[in-house]
């Protein structure tokens, strides 16, 4: 109770902490570009992809104010520091690896990374916009259109995007980030499945007709 009260006094929400962390990621990527320089299209492409993703995260909350309702729980200074270290610094690891990788980016890696990023972004944004619009018009369980393919299609799109960063980075260590994000999402999926089953009587039917995370696979 005391920790919650202290968190509320700071006026910080989890979303605010994440937003600040996203700005930190952009700053770190720009620092990498100045410190290590632009040697190849690897660095150019990585900078474009990851910075545009962070900017879209921030822009989406302005375009769709309902997005500000996510991660609305209060956090204290400790929560802010954790977000800066994890979402801000750790998520920029593939960027550091991309800027310190002297090997030119191959055509194959480019051909893999760009579709991953483009489709990941389209899937994630489409899922978020559809759910926000449906909720505005009083819908309860959103299970049609893009959500008919996966009950967590937004998470799937986000994972594709982070995989694209790892591909461009060109280091096996870069895959630590999407791997950790996958673990976090699996935990959220498990919690969501339990709460949604209680909240919606038709959720069991939705489970039978859709994949859990990866469309047509699982």
UniProtKB/TrEMBL annotation:
<feature type="transmembrane region" description="Helical">
    <location>
        <begin position="159"/>
        <end position="186"/>
    </location>
</feature>
<feature type="transmembrane region" description="Helical">
    <location>
        <begin position="75"/>
        <end position="93"/>
    </location>
</feature>
<protein>
    <submittedName>
        <fullName>Steroid 5-alpha reductase</fullName>
    </submittedName>
</protein>
<feature type="transmembrane region" description="Helical">
    <location>
        <begin position="44"/>
        <end position="63"/>
    </location>
</feature>
<feature type="transmembrane region" description="Helical">
    <location>
        <begin position="105"/>
        <end position="127"/>
    </location>
</feature>
<dbReference type="GO" id="GO:0016126">
    <property type="term" value="P:sterol biosynthetic process"/>
</dbReference>
<dbReference type="Pfam" id="PF06966">
    <property type="entry name" value="DUF1295"/>
</dbReference>
<dbReference type="GO" id="GO:0050613">
    <property type="term" value="F:Delta14-sterol reductase activity"/>
</dbReference>
<keyword id="KW-0812">Transmembrane</keyword>
<dbReference type="InterPro" id="IPR010721">
    <property type="entry name" value="UstE-like"/>
</dbReference>
<feature type="transmembrane region" description="Helical">
    <location>
        <begin position="12"/>
        <end position="38"/>
    </location>
</feature>
<keyword id="KW-1133">Transmembrane helix</keyword>
<keyword id="KW-0472">Membrane</keyword>
């Amino acid at each position: 109770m005391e920790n919650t009260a202290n968190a509320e006094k700071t006026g910080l929400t989890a979303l605010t902490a994440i937003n600040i962390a996203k700005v930190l990621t952009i700053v770190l990527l720009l620092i990498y570009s100045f410190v290590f320089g632009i040697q190849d299209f690897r660095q150019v492409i990585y900078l474009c992809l990851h910075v545009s993703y962070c900017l879209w995260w921030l822009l989406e909350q302005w375009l769709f104010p309902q997005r500000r309702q996510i991660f609305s729980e209060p956090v204290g200074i400790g929560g802010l520091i954790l977000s800066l270290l994890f979402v801000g610094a750790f998520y920029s690891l593939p960027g550091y690896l991309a800027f310190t990788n002297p090997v030119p980016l191959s055509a194959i890696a480019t051909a893999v990374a760009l579709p991953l990023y483009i489709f990941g972004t389209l899937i994630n944004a489409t899922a978020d916009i559809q759910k926000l619009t449906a909720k505005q018009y009083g819908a309860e369980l959103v299970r049609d259109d893009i959500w008919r393919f996966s009950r967590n299609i937004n998470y799937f799109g986000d994972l594709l995007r982070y995989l694209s960063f790892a591909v461009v980075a060109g280091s096996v260590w870069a895959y630590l980030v999407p791997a950790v994000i996958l673990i976090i999402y699996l935990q959220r999926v498990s919690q969501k499945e339990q709460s949604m089953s209680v909240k919606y009587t038709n959720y069991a039917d939705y489970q039978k007709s859709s994949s859990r995370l990866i469309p047509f696979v699982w």
